[in-house]
Automatic annotation (TrEMBL):
EC code: 2.4.1.211
Residue span, Lacto-N-biose phosphorylase-like N-terminal TIM barrel domain: 8-439
Keywords per UniProt: Glycosyltransferase, Transferase
Start and end residues of each Lacto-N-biose phosphorylase central domain: 443-660
Source species, domain of life: Bacteria
GO molecular function terms attached to this record: 1,3-beta-galactosyl-N-acetylhexosamine phosphorylase activity; 1,4-alpha-oligoglucan phosphorylase activity
Protein name: 1,3-beta-galactosyl-N-acetylhexosamine phosphorylase
Pfam families found in the cross-reference section: Lact_bio_phlase, LBP_C, LBP_M
Domain Lacto-N-biose phosphorylase C-terminal: 666-718
Amino acid sequence: MMNMEKKGRLTLPTDVDMVEETMRLQELLGADALRDCDGTAMPDALLQSGAKIYATYYTTRKDNEWAESHPEEIQQEYLISDRVTARGKSLRIELMKGFHREQLKVNTLDSPKRWWEVMDRTTGEPVPTEQWEYDEETGEVVIESIPYHQYTVSFLAFLIWDPVHMYNFITNDWKDAPHQLTYDVRQPKTREYVKNKLKRWCQENPDVNVVRFTTFFHQFTLTFDDKKREKFVEWFGYSASVSPYILEQFEKWAGYKFRPEYIVDQGYHNSIFRVPSREFRDFIEFQQREVSSLAKELVDIVHEYGKEAMMFLGDHWIGTEPFGKYFANIGLDAVVGSVGDGVTLRMISDIKGVKYTEGRLLPYFFPDVFTEGGDPIGEAQENWLKARRAILRSPLDRIGYGGYLKLANEWPGFIDQIKRVVDEFRQIHANMQGTKAYTAPFKVGILNCWGNLRRWMANQVHHALWYREIYSYVGVIECLSGMPFDVEFITFDQVREGIDPDIRVIINAGDVGTSWSGAENWMDETIVCAIRRFVDQGGGFIGVGEPSACQYQGRYFQLSDVLGVDRELGFSMSTDKYNEMDSSHFILEDIEGEIDFGEGKSRIYAQGENYQILNMDGKYSRLVVNQYGEGRSVYFAGLPYSPQNCRLLLRAIYYAAHQEAEMRKFYVSNVDTEITVFEETGKIAVINNSREPRQTDLYVQGEIRAHLDMAPMEIVWLDVEERE
């Protein structure tokens, strides 16, 4: 084994009352960087500790004096009222009903008639401005209504409490901290003020090496209700990136008049699950263009003072889309983000245009985890098991932790667990030496409406949080995050233009009508013909849940001929279906016991002449393969993440690509184990993804090389070439 790195690649949080403890842990863990966090401060005694010093820098808050003296330049958000049914010819709608009045305040400084919109939700038409008025005294909009029609009001509100500060305030039970206002750096006076303030800060903090922007200008949509609960959270949401100043610029750039409906989107707020409209796509591009340009001005200031500029992929990150076409123009040195699993790790580690990437591993050192009944060690182990397999495929350059170091230091055994993680992380880098892991000789394409702009973000509501409606789909990209495939995220427009010849397998996963499945795109003959041609000529297609779903011309799955399955909606109940299972297949060779399809999909039946049903639920199907011309398809009713399902998907991809033999070039037999090979350094990593001991056989070039007895969570390193 190569000499393992003993220190470096690690950032630790600290605080003013943790000087000696920080120095001890810095030595024990080999940390080469120290950071402050929201609610902590960097001790002066550690500025000369020899570590790289990170300072959290807030461009939009922590300056209430400025915000209070410039109320017109406080951040704003588009809100939509409750739906209210009229019972007469006049209707009053209370705008702030259900919203938290300490967070949001109706904007009456700018003309409601110009920037608000009253919608008749029964007809889908806007109500003319002369048919409604705003009663500022009562906070209500008064509408000339049609009896029994439903109405909403879309309106602008000032964010008078920064959403992240509010979240931290509530989560950590802060009592005395003043509510932090949030100001809009895009506005002219605040723009100049913030730039000059950053210059002064850089001058006054010569010992800071890295300015960690949290983030730049616009908070993702995080709206609280009147009980201080989260009301609407959209990690990808643009609803809080608006103001009349910005929207007037957008109108000039786009060449058409802006409507609030482009943002509130019937009350869905353009959830990432929605198929994005042309207008919303335009707004996203405009914001990315403008945000990247202004962010570059701040980064340039940091560089003038000889410091590095780091961006946190979270909080106020809207407009800094890391896979957008303007991101590289910012000139950042690094990106750091929270690592919740393999998917969120790849979301960070795949970023181009920066010198290095860094991940904040979980758990955060917060009292909601480090408390009686909490399991921070278990959370750390689970987090590392998911992150490690992705790191072996696309490594972060650095890792770190955040929160209150005192909590971690006082929890028995937790620091020992962190040391094991850090040692393995350095071990991975020592053995790979910056080289790329072996990947299969073909690419896998994930087809949805967002493509590469939402790389490793598919089917997520909010950054690694579990939801019943999504776990059966997120499992697909979580499995892929640690697999030996180059993955491309492609759009339907790219399919229209022509499928990349390096892609041998296309995956479409999601519920009907969502951006992930594709909705009405499947009514486009160009799309369905392109996919049929691709598979007919030898390609592979994998569908999960409701792929190609759109009720049209007598079919629910528009690629039912390719998939060999369709879904019974009741329309074809009179057509008999004679489905029988035959589970003897390459895809199931390693699989023992029941298969977890998650929520799955009901009433899936096989049809055609070339299908084979591998798994059934009663008389309906859950796993089906189909031959289509020279190509193959695989259908899963759902695919949550688990080691067994990783193996299922691995085999399904190689099968669909007609590359079964290639799978055993480097292979391990136990589904709880995985293999990564670095051919340039001659190293093999075998990982045990279980917290229990496992035995596995290692295959190299299709032949058994070794039998391994692996300890819980162990990583074993071997040489690619056997040595005498």
